[in-house]
Amino acid sequence: MNEEALLAAAARALGRRIEGSGRVSGGDINEAWALELEGGGRAFLKSRAGAPEDEFGAEAAGLRWLGKPGGLPVPEVLAVIDDDGERGLVLEWVERGALGPGGEEDLGRGLATIHAAGADAFDALPPDSPRTELRFGGGEVESYGGDTWAEVYAARLERLARAALGRGAITERCAGLVAEVCARMGALAGPDERPARIHGDLWSGNVLAGADGRPWLIDPKAHGAHREMDLAMLDLFGSVSARTLRAYDEVWPLDDGRAERVGLWQLQPLLVHAILFGGSYGAAVERVAAGYA
Question: Of the listed 82, 106, 123, 201, which one is catalytic?
Answer without folding.
Answer: 201
